[in-house]
Amino acid sequence: MTKNGELGLGIDLGGTKILTAVIDAAGKMLSRDHSVTPAAEGQEAVIEAIMESTKRSLSEAGMTSEDLTAVGIGAPGLSNPETGILYTSPNLPGWHDVPLRDIISKEFGKTTYLINDGSAAAVGELYFGAAKRARDFIYITVSTGIGGGIVVNGEIYAGSTGTAGELGHMVIDDDGPLCNCGNTGCWEMLASGTALASEAKRIIERGTDTTILDYAGGNIEKVKAEAIHEAAVAGDDLANRLIARNAYYLGVGLANLINIFNPEVIVIGGGLSNIGDLLLLPAYEEAGRRAFKQSYQSMHFTLADLGRNSGVIGAAAYALERSRKNI
Ligand SMILES: [Zn+2]
Questions:
Q1: How far apart are CA 201 and CA 158, in angstroms?
Q2: Is the whole-model pTM more than 0.70?
Q3: Class for the domain spanning 130-304
Q4: Dist. CA 173 → ligand 1 center (Å)
Q5: Where in the chain is the domain with CATH 3.30.420.40?
Q6: What is the pLDDT of residues 287-309, one digit of tens each?
Q7: Which residues surround ligand 1, an ion (CB under 5 A)?
């Protein structure tokens, strides 16, 4: 954990949004800035947007970069925390082997760390959220895709070249839909919010009797998880079947994680988890049917505590922790 008086700057870089915040040693956010990622404008525009956002965060906290102990960046895609290189990111077109850590570090003149966004969120939940006191746990975020982080013995498990934890690309159905990673039947193609919406659209286009469209303003393009959830709660048969299908695939993936890692807890975040028990209870039951009893009975599921801030808090906390240990 961090010492008092230390201040970290967290940067949560996403394909659509940039979140930055100044965080103290107790994980409290002293400021927070939210802006849009100009991903289509290329790397330089994104770096500039990050720097603008950090300036606003520092000024809101009444600080300058001189006051910072360390800077942490959580970034989507494959990166190596040791070298600070972002290899590639499906959400940031054109980014290949970018020395993101050193670029940001030069701007601030402060020790800077790069970590995968899912791992950053896991660190946030480990230090200040739902996984406090856990030593072995998995964090998953289920939203447009499925991301996550693996914590083993109180530390993020990064793998031999830093790219471990791509939970959403665990293959669940080898004959399943094509994923943008190039593989077929990845977990996020079957159990994410995007998977839920695209399956709904596919069936509605065939002409099935359902009220889902009514909850999407009559526009099939606007069929998203929220509309399906609302229709399900109101008793729509198709909506309930679609959520049950997502729950089934979610449970299959959870069973795999439980059998491989034997975690104490699996923390679930992301927009789709807002559906709550209707999605999660059947997913937990499916996991229970498939996982080894010894592993399943000794673990529990819980919802993430820090919401959208887990990544930005985690990136800053990771940087403070690493800088304190001088690594
Ligand atoms: Zn994939």
A1: 37
A2: yes
A3: alpha beta
A4: 11
A5: 7-116+312-325, 130-304
A6: 999 999 999 999 999 999 999 99
A7: 169, 179, 181, 183, 186
